[in-house]
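So, can you check this record?

>
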Amino acid sequence: MQVTIFETPVVRHVMRGLSRVFLRLNGWTLRGELPPQATRCVLIAAPHTSNWDLPYTLMTAFVLKLHIRWLGKASIFRFPFGGVMRWLGGIPVDRSGPHDLVASAAASLRAARQPMQLVVPPEGTRGRTRHWKTGFWFIAQQAEVPILLAYMDYHKKEAGIGPVLTTSGDVQADLAEVKAFYAGVRGRNAHQFDAE
């Protein structure tokens, strides 16, 4: 697996410091820390309503000492930015046809020898949607890793790590628990996010 900015020694320390300063100057508060049982996990990133979510997620990850990998549409990995996006932890996703994304993502998590938190937005898009995708749940179940609930509330200017969820075998019951956690969280474009 490709080395990312989160495994690049000097750069990650510099970025952690810069991120901490930027977030503090802009009034953001970070909460929580990575639980020991979630060094390899599926990390839900919600709500996902804006392109600004990526830079804020990266800065939050630096400050909280995470080693994230994130799924992004293949078009943002084209020349000349593809190498940079991969270095930032990106994994291109081709949404044009049938691909077994769940199986390949789960295999990556199982094969990881270092800490890896795979960021998956449950909405599957930054546009408005009422239907949450369950791919994150199936990735976690197949990889036999927990789901970590992370959030970014633009209204409160607060981001952080919430509870850890172990898949129960009942996707609808687990999804209801996840949605309950995010019910009060507001994204940058709050009208596009629905946790019901």
